[in-house]
Amino acid sequence: MSYDVDGTIIDFNTNKIPLLSIVLDSFAVKSINEIFENYQNEVILDRLYKLDKTKEFSECYKSLIEILVEKFQKDDFYFQRIPSFRLHRINQSSVNYHNDCMSGHGEKVINAWIPLVDTNEHNSLHLASQNNSVRLLKQFQKEKLSLGEVNKLFKKNSYPAIVKYGEMMLFNTNRIHGTEINISNQNRISFDFRILPKGADPFTKTINDYFISNLGNDNKNNSEISCMFYVNMRNPLMKNCTHFIQRELMHVYANTNHLNASGKEEPETYIVDHYPVIHHYLKTKEYSHVVMASILCLPEDCSLRNEILLLAESNEVTLHFSLENINSNDLSISQVEGYYESVVKAENFL
Predict the structure, then answer these.
(1) Which helix (H) or strand (E) holds 320?
(2) 247 near 231, Cβ under 8 Å?
(3) Which DSSP state fits 101?
(4) What pLDDT sits at residue 220?
(5) What are phi and psi of 48, to 5 degrees?
(6) Residue ranges of the chain with pLDDT lower than 50?
(7) What was the pLDDT predicted at 297?
(8) Which of 207, 170, 196 is nearest to 106 (CA)?
(9) What is d(CA 98, CA 84) in angstroms, rounded to the nearest whole number?
(10) 46-56 burial by CB neighbour count: b if 16+ within 10 A, else e?
(11) What is residue 2's predicted lDDT score, i.e. its pLDDT?
């Protein structure tokens, strides 16, 4: 079976997967409405996300994934590491109309939506059809509509999806969806997560950062390549990029590209101009992969920069440039030269 399951609703046993009971017990209440009567949204969400760290909820989440393995008749997919919890309070809407591609999700991603109440036309998700979603998004782009205009357009072409507790609705990530003012007498808590078929483009939601593999051994294999992080703030534009910011860029890049620094980070020496730290690691070949925040972490001096690139090449050390999302194996020295000089020129213009 393929992953083409748009609009499918899958039943699950609420006695074996007691999501509602887990949530109610965590608040010591007897109903979803009682939670909303006693707590503000921020407190509710904080408690819900803490459930992700509990054994009870984690086992339920795992059971839902196993249901999808059976439904897809495939297990080679990734699923969202931490599900997203949503609140739809009486007399309020929950989210404006959108599709998840607009939020940076890949086109082949599948959404799984699970309400913890029996929904009605007022507190449920409203969705546009697949064909209408494609048409409306083209109109959004062609007419350059504002967010207010596009929300009205999407709303006009969407309808409520009535889903009961004990049901999980699947829909494609490019389907337009949103919510209306909840004029019913039932508050709604739901959670959702995303499935990424193996080999599909996650777009901005990087594998290992946002997703986790359904195949247990994949997670081990994804971090097998050892590397070190190299930090340098002395060069153009990088002088405002703190160690913390550079480290965050490198972590995202490393997670996406199956690299593992294991805490190994080296800053360049700042009191001399010949870049002894990067030279040392390239010459000793202690690490065959060195990750830095940007090409701009290389020396501003052209001859010194080229020397480092040649040294890395001759010693078979790959330099990884996080911001540019590229490595030295895919770049010529002349390409690095052109990029570096153009950025410096732009910085001088400012």
Answers:
(1) strand 318-321
(2) yes
(3) G
(4) 46
(5) -65, -45
(6) 1, 217-223
(7) 93
(8) 196
(9) 16
(10) eebeebeeeee
(11) 62
Say how far apart CA 116 and CA 19 lie, in whole Å: 7
SS3 242: coil
Task: Give Rg (Cα) of the chain.
Answer: 25
pLDDT value, residue 216: 56
Phi, psi dihedral angles at 110 (to 5 degrees): -115, 135
Cα–Cα distance for residue pair 174/133, rounded to 1 Å? 7
pTM for this entry: 0.71
CA distance 80 to 105: 11
Nearest residue to 12 (alpha-carbon basis) of 124, 85, 115: 115
Helix extents (H) in 180-328: 216-221, 243-256, 276-284, 302-314
Give CA 4 to chain center in angstroms. Answer: 22
Confidence (pLDDT) at 217: 44
Locus of tokens 């795992």: 62
The distance from CA 20 to its chain's CA centroid, rounded to whole angstroms, is 26
Cα(319)–Cα(310) distance, integer angstroms = 11
Count of beta carbons in the 10 Å neighbourhood of residue 333: 14
Residue 22 has what pLDDT? Answer: 97
Q: CA dist 55 to 22, 68, 207, Å? A: 11, 20, 24
How far from 57 is each of 18, 26, 33, 154, 276, CA to CA, in Å? 9, 11, 21, 34, 50
Q: Which two tokens stand for residue 65?
A: 């994934």
Token readout for 81 is 């590491």
Closest CA to 35 of 180, 192, 188: 188
In angstroms, the Cα distances linking 184 to 108, 113, 156, 181, 201 are 34, 20, 20, 9, 39
